[in-house]
Design a protein that fits this description.
Elements (H helix, E strand, L loop, with lengths): L22 H15 L5 H19 L9 H8 L3 H14 L1 H12 L8 H10 L9 H13 L20 H4 L17 H17 L6 H20 L2 H7 L7 H6 L11 E5 L5 E3 L13
Antiparallel strand pairs: 1-2
Length: 291
């Protein structure tokens, strides 16, 4: 392990598993990230975008404000979570927004206590059907926790690590001769994600990165998984993310940074009628077709 010192303003994390990460793989990924981001403004531009995303989540959900959340505000947030924006429109049309808001309120009750993170996230996901069509629920809960307080909550989405199917960033950066055949007996709980976040923060510190570490970690992990999509992802996954000569396209999409057309305000979130949600626009007013 890299052995990162804990930040003094965050409660000590529970003891987690030992993660045998590959230094050469991480260095290669970081170098490729820096090179790939340069034509579109450099890594700092993406870090700034993630910081703004976090500010949006904190403003609407943080410090008990979730009880004031409107449906329009939620749709604005959901547009920045790639798995959610593809599925949530149909769920809202059938179940209504208030039910989801109450469940988010329960997820964030006692949000400063990370020792209850696993329990709250599990309880949140258990309120929805346990099937393929509702996998987005875990990602919604994970991104809400992370982006309201990135220092306290590491990013715990399925693409970072999904123990059930054994896939995610953790596998891609594991130290092994043939990681594709390796069975990783690592839980996808708060302790694991905390250790992974700290190890990657330590690695980035060794590369000279000392500010905005949570967002640099997010960006590095997204770029690692984008490389997996490009090189080894299945045909359905490649179809979802499409092909492009832009080496940062998939990285942006993993983090939801492609959510908004800045000229029109249209987002990638589809409502039940197939129309595109426009940022800040109440549901049902926009009828523009999503691209």
């Amino acid at each position: 392990m890299f052995g990162l010192k804990r930040k003094p303003d965050v409660a000590p994390a529970p003891t987690g598993p030992v993660l045998d990460l590959s230094g050469p793989t991480l260095r290669k990924a970081f170098e490729h990230l820096v090179t790939s981001a340069e034509p579109t403004g450099g890594v700092e531009r993406y870090v700034t975008a993630l910081s703004l995303k976090s500010s949006l989540f904190e403003e609407m959900l943080g410090k008990g404000k979730v009880h004031e959340l409107s449906e329009t505000e939620f749709l604005d947030l959901a547009a920045f979570i790639t798995p959610v924006r593809r599925r949530v429109g149909a769920w809202l049309a059938e179940n209504g927004f208030e039910l989801l808001r109450v469940r988010l309120e329960e997820l964030l009750a006692g949000w400063t206590d990370t020792t209850s993170a696993d329990e709250r996230l599990a309880r949140f996901t258990s309120k929805f059907p346990d099937d393929k069509a509702h996998r987005w629920v875990r990602d919604l809960g994970a991104e809400v926790l992370h982006f309201i307080d990135p220092e306290r909550y590491p990013l715990m989405t399925r693409w970072v690590w999904d123990a059930k199917v054994g896939s995610g960033v953790l596998r891609e950066i594991w130290f092994a001769d043939d990681v594709s055949t390796l069975k990783l007996d690592i839980p996808d709980d708060y302790a694991t994600f905390r250790v992974l976040n700290d190890e990657l923060s330590q690695f980035l510190g060794e590369q000279g990165v000392f500010r905005d570490l949570p967002f640099y970690v997010d960006l590095l992990m997204a770029h690692v998984y984008a490389d997996y999509i490009n090189d080894r992802g299945g045909s359905l996954m490649r179809a979802e993310f499409a092909t492009s000569s832009d080496p940062m396209l998939h990285t942006r999409r993993m983090l939801g940074l492609d959510a908004v057309d800045t000229e029109t305000g249209r987002t990638r979130l589809k409502l039940i009628d197939g129309s595109a949600h426009v940022l800040g626009t109440p549901k049902g007013i926009t009828h523009q077709e999503s691209s």
